[in-house]
Write a structure and sequence with these properties.
By secondary structure, the chain is of the alpha+beta class. Helices cover about 30% and strands about 25% of the residues. It folds into three domains: about 200 residues, 2-Layer Sandwich (Aldehyde Oxidoreductase, domain 4); about 150 residues, Aldehyde Oxidoreductase, domain 4, CATH 3.30.365.10; about 325 residues, Aldehyde oxidase/xanthine dehydrogenase, molybdopterin binding domain (Aldehyde Oxidoreductase, domain 4). The strands form seven sheets. It has a seven-stranded mixed sheet with strand order 11-12-9-19-16-17-18. A five-stranded mixed sheet has the order 1-2-3-4-5, with helices on one face. Strands 14-22-21-20-15 form a five-stranded mixed sheet, sandwiched between helices.
Amino acid sequence: MKHDRMPMADTASTPGLTRRAFVATALAAGGGLALTVSLPPLDAKAAGAQPEAFAPNAVVRIGTDGLVTLVMPRVEMGQGIYTAVALLIAEELEIDPRRVRLEHAPADETRYSNPLTGGQITGGSTSVRSTWEPMRRAGATARLLLVEAAARQWKVDASTCRASDGAVEHVPTRRKLGYGQLAQAAAGLPVPAEVPLKDLATLKRIGQPLLRLDGPDKVNGRARYGLDASVAGMRIAAIAHCPVIGARVASVDDTRARAVKGVRQVVRIDNAVAVVADHMGAARKGLAALEIRWDEGANADYSTEKLIAALADASLRSGAVARKEGDTVAAARGAARTVDAVYQQPLLAHAPMEPVNCTVHVRPDACELWVGTQVPARAQAAAAELTGLPIERVEVHNHLLGGGFGRRLDIDFVIQAVKIAKQVNGPVKVVWTREEDTQHSTFRPYHYNRLSAALDARGRPVAWHHRVTASSILARWAPARFQNELDGDAIRDAAGPYGFANVLVEYVREEPPAGITTAFWRGVGHMQNAFPVECFVDELAHLAGSDAIAYRRELLEKHPRARHVLELVARKSGWGGALPAGKGRGVALTFCFGSYAAQVTEVSVDADGAVRVDRVVIAVDCGRLISPDTVVAQMQGGTAFGLSAVLYGNISIKDGRVEQGNFDTYRVLRMDEMPVIETHLVPSTETPGGIGEVGTVLTAPSVLNAVFAATGKRIRRLPFAAEELKRA
């Protein structure tokens, strides 16, 4: 790991989060200080709701025993947010972050809403961006109240007191009182109207290396995931889904299943049948004994080929205009040359290490859920609707997530578990197998991209046209944000960060048949569009006879931060240096989630067309660094995730059935295939950007550009395969 760091000053603040916080205090359970910090939403119109519906709340509790508890407004799924947010609180509160106790926030749309997304949502690389100022302000407010409480007790001026290491000291006399001793008195004090934050030049914890706070429990086994939920009297349910997409159950003979020892009942719902038993072994054995007849419906002959054909036809239509600058038609008429290309990306599953699961107990007057979800309030609302209970009678016990990647932004598996639990007397844990989670999951959309560039005599683009054709996730997931037939996520990064004089970006919506549910996937629209954009820019550079980095640099006059990461990655990777035959370097650049990043990938291609990724060098400018080691880890993890997708990822459909199942047919990168990864962090005083998905965004284009450099063959359609490289 390589870090380039320098001291940073507090010269900017998070856009939309600079309004004065509303702060309230109260006695915590058992006595002490409870603090709530509330801010207006970043953009209520974009969030599709009124401002008050999106007021996020973070609660800090300090007990009389001195224990500091942070009720986490975001969900931990491996991205390191439990460490980063604890750092923000601890810095201003003047405590060791390792002394902060973390709790999962309950389902509460009002108190824990994310101002950048609207709703109680963890996703879109927004966790640090949405908490950067509120969490610091929460810590600073608590610190000021504790100092004031001590000053009043000593009958001295508060300016003569300072907070340090979980205590307040009266500097002249060196008297000290711990936070626990002051908590109850602090809770009764009036809250200051304005709370100054530290100058970043004085920070001691933010920006410094820190071991993950959730790491020890994950190593020693104390960490609890949804799959670990254990409730008294709990049964286990194994489930079989209709193999054909969108099909239904026609009939079930459960005679043999009921005869299996430990099987308690068989539950039929919609497109699936569940066997409820005392333990998983009995449930699986009972499931195998079922005699099910499926109604395969209209999709029995559906295939990937039909999906692609429909998208290709739709891509010939004009679409909703997402971005229009200048006149691309007029510019093309006077151009020296026009270049066209079609880029395609397949359906993908999320494949989290922890398959989806949900434990539910439905009673006449209440409902409880034990689950790992990125959207706890959505899960709560769905359970309330299904059971007919008031929402306050539905309790969600959220857990750590064994991977999310967007899969747990959907609640299909929660809805299914509640439907099953309504027919079971007592709590029941519904667990999907790996195969079910691959074949009946939500999928990243198939994207069909038509790109066209008009070039001047030097081969530089005078016009850029990108038409994205795909299904709309937002139309299903957040209908209020799907306006004028335009899906804002589907067209993210469609022209990259480049300064094209004339730009036209269009979106054509084309949906697959019912039963194929498309969903957010790590990197979201940025990931799907960086691939065609960065590869097409590489094509243009090659046609112009220009170096790929030099060509990009000319298009970045108005983006100095983008130029800087591009130049940094060129230096650190040895760009331009000689490589042996069969090896190549490729570059990709992105501005996504408020962060700038560039990546150079080195690959080897053997005589049979097999590709091995040897080295990845990344330069990242994500603004102010909160937890540098977390940034490095996320770039490494995101790169590995992206390599799995570009080298192996594919969900294909034949006879209405998903062909992939476990990791034997839905390959992920293996340990011996992991390349050397170097991450270089750019010192910055800018607003913090997101980082959890940036590495994934860059991987596919940098790999495929490297393959071209090594072979002279351009791959425009994924999934990548050695056979396709031979055909190119």
